[in-house]
UniProtKB/TrEMBL annotation:
Residues 6-397 form the FAD-dependent oxidoreductase 2 FAD-binding domain. Keywords: Electron transport, FAD, Flavoprotein, Membrane, Oxidoreductase, Transport, Tricarboxylic acid cycle. It is found in: Membrane. This is Succinate dehydrogenase flavoprotein subunit. It catalyses: a quinone + succinate = fumarate + a quinol. The lineage of its organism: Bacteria, Thermotogati, Deinococcota, Deinococci, Deinococcales. It holds the Pfam family Succ_DH_flav_C. It is a peripheral membrane protein. InterPro entries: FAD-dep_OxRdtase_2_FAD-bd, FAD/NAD-bd_sf, FRD_SDH_FAD_BS, Fum_R/Succ_DH_flav-like_C_sf, Fum_Rdtase/Succ_DH_flav-like_C, SdhA/FrdA/AprA, Succ_DH/fumarate_Rdtase_cat_sf, Succ_DH_flav_su_fwd. Pathway: Carbohydrate metabolism; tricarboxylic acid cycle; fumarate from succinate (bacterial route): step 1/1. It is an enzyme of class 1 (oxidoreductase).
Length: 583
């Protein structure tokens, strides 16, 4: 089946819905394709809130937010993106309020705000209340609000359609190909502009907070075309996932006063970050937890967790402000945070890197200003490089609404100016081949086993602490898993809802993301933000103040080519920080 829209959006999370809404407001026809029903997108799991310097509870300024974002990103953040973001996110939050998003309120009726890791006032002096929240269901409310607004604006939705290919010809994007999960049919979509917003890829790790569907599909599709993925080595582990399960325990819980304790009951963050203690940025807290565990002060049966203590908080705070997570601890661990300590461990959480874009969402084809006409990206799968080497909590939801909106506006503007380009003949041929290969393969290898091995080895070899020999080992492991993947066969012949086929395809995407991440991480011989190398412990601005651009070598499937891109600077350097560094 063939369709035609001025603007096509892939993904219906916060970024996709914001982009679709703004494209629809731009007087063009808009369709949004999503492999999930929109309100089931991972954005719905975001609990903590969206950071914006509204100053409702305490004095705050966008310049302070900009500085925190850059410092949190360990100076790899593009400072032009951080400036736009910190200014625009204020207005974007009010806009969501006016669309009807039910934010929690202060006593005077303003949007309530709470503290979050790494967010400070006066350039690092003390923590500030900046996170705007709707209890611990902020992301859920964002999705519901934006979905309703899209329905009102006339966006057409293709739900449970899995995008399998992007059509790019002569440097311009022409559309996409998608597989209809409910019928097994292939659809082609011809468009003037396409916006990619397909989310993260945390599923390449064993312990992750990410939904089952976060498999990096569009990053891989982009990369397979010889186009670059930026800063893939920077992957954030959230310090607090429920032990063994990875399910996220929001940082908001520490914002409300939750404390991390080791097996001796010590509040160990006092040793690692004396000023902001449990609210230090995520990379610092994750590494502190792993250090405690490695030094034998872990808790739980395997000694591989740390306790989160909420028992000193008022019952109402736990029941009302942290309702969702209280429920998860009760359901999955049989523990009641009101009286029990909750065992947690770091969980793979957020991709700082992804498809490179400029500040208007336009996708970049190299590190020197090249771009793909008509192709935009936003959200976790994109890298406008707002988060640099490490994202601050609450800055992702802000990123979705600020840069999702910009991508929508600029894509619609472009679509109004151009004609439909020509679609190549048989645009669906490659997707058909890929699916048929898997359906008809006679190999005996099993996708689930390969996936399990990928997740375990990525966790061990390219996880929180990294070193050269382990990552070199991982390069070989990924090669071997890719070779085995070629022999994977799908036993279920169904046309309708063939989840085995979809999961096998997703595994191929995950292998690409893992390959790009491992090569980029091995190449960067310094420690910065979330990228922590035991063999290169220091940050090295002289050699590494630059973004990595990883390309698949189209002449040798197992080779990754590395290029670089400059960091945009606007005056903030480490010299600007108060001394000593306050955490
Ligand atoms: C548990 C959890 C809690 C979080 N809490 C916070 C928080 O409090 N504050 C904060 O700022 N950030 C938080 N984050 C991070 C933030 O929520 C995510 O980074 C953000 O929601 C990603 O949004 P997105 O729109 O980019 O993608 P998603 O919301 O993940 O949506 C991806 C969309 O892409 C679609 N898709 C994917 N692949 C395909 C394909 N091949 N074909 C068609 N469609 C496809 C999916 O159907 C989906 O609609 C949290 C993340 C997690 C996992």
């Amino acid at each position: 089946m063939h369709h035609r829209y001025d603007v096509l959006v892939v993904g219906a999370g916060g970024a996709g819905l914001m982009a679709a809404l703004y494209a629809a407001k731009g007087n063009v026809s808009v369709a949004c394709i999503s492999k999930l029903y929109p309100t089931r997108s991972h954005t719905g799991a975001a609990q903590g809130g969206v950071g914006a310097a509204l100053g409702n509870v305490q004095e705050d300024h966008w310049e302070w937010h900009m500085f925190d974002t850059i410092k949190g990103g360990d100076y790899l953040t593009d400072q032009d993106a951080a400036e736009i973001f910190s200014k625009d996110v204020i207005e974007a939050v009010y806009e969501l309020e006016h669309m009807g998003l039910p934010f929690s309120r202060t006593e005077e009726g303003k949007i309530a705000q709470r503290k979050f890791g790494g967010h400070t006032r006066e350039f690092g002096k003390a923590a500030v209340e900046r996170s705007c929240y709707a209890k611990d269901r902020t992301g859920h409310m964002i999705l519901q609000t934006l979905y309703q607004q899209n329905v009102k604006a006339g966006t057409t939705f293709y739900n449970e359609f899995h995008v399998t290919d992007l059509i790019i010809e002569d440097g311009r994007c022409r559309g996409v190909v998608a597989y209809d999960l409910s019928t097994g049919e292939i659809h082609t979509y011809h468009a003037k502009a396409v916006i990619l917003a397909a989310g993260g890829y945390g599923r390449i790790f064993k312990i992750t907070s990410n939904a089952l569907t976060l498999t990096g599909d569009l990053m891989s599709i982009y990369y397979r075309k010889g186009l670059p993925l930026e800063d893939m080595e920077f992957y954030q582990f959230h310090p607090t996932g429920l032990s063994k399960l990875g399910i996220l325990v929001t940082e908001g819980i520490r914002g409300e006063g939750g404390i991390l304790r080791n097996s001796t009951g010590e509040r160990f963050m006092e040793r690692y970050a004396p000023t902001i203690k449990d609210l230090a940025p995520r990379d610092i807290v994750s590494r502190s937890i792993i250090t405690e565990i490695r030094e034998g002060r872990g808790v739980g049966r395997d000694g591989d967790a740390i306790n989160l203590d909420l028992t000193h908080l008022p019952r109402e705070t736990i029941e009302q402000k942290l309702a969702e997570i209280t429920d998860l601890a009760r359901t999955y661990l049989g523990l009641d945070p009101i009286k029990d300590l909750v065992p947690i461990q770091p969980t793979a959480h957020y991709a700082m890197g992804g498809i490179p874009t400029d500040v208007n969402g336009l996708c970049l084809s190299d590190g020197h200003g090249g771009s793909i006409e008509g192709l935009y990206a936003a959200g976790e799968q994109a890298c406008v490089s707002l988060h640099g080497a490490n994202r601050l909590g609450t800055n992702s939801l802000g990123d979705l609404i600020v840069f999702g909106r910009r991508a929508g506006i600029y894509a619609a503007q472009y679509a109004r100016q151009v004609d439909y380009g020509t679609m190549p003949e048989n645009p669906e041929a490659e997707s058909k081949d890929m699916l048929n290969r898997m359906k008809n393969a006679s190999g005996t290898d099993n996708a689930a086993l390969i996936r399990k091995e990928l997740q375990e080895t990525m966790m061990n070899n390219v996880g929180i602490f990294r070193n050269g020999p382990d990552m070199e080992k991982q390069v070989e492991i990924v090669k071997e898993l890719k070779a085995r993947y070629k022999n994977v066969s799908v036993s279920d012949p169904s046309q309708r809802y063939n989840s085995e086929l979809m999961e096998a395809m997703e595994l191929g995407f995950m292998l690409d993301c893992a390959e790009a991440m491992t090569a980029s991480a091995l190449n960067r011989t310094e420690s910065r933000g979330a990228h922590d190398r035991e063999d290169y412990g220091e940050r090295d601005d002289a050699n590494w103040l630059k973004h990595t651009m990883a390309y698949k070598d189209l002449h040798n499937d197992n080779n990754v080519l590395i290029g670089y891109k400059d960091v945009s600077l606007k005056g903030y350097t480490r010299a600007f920080e108060p001394k000593p560094r306050v955490y």
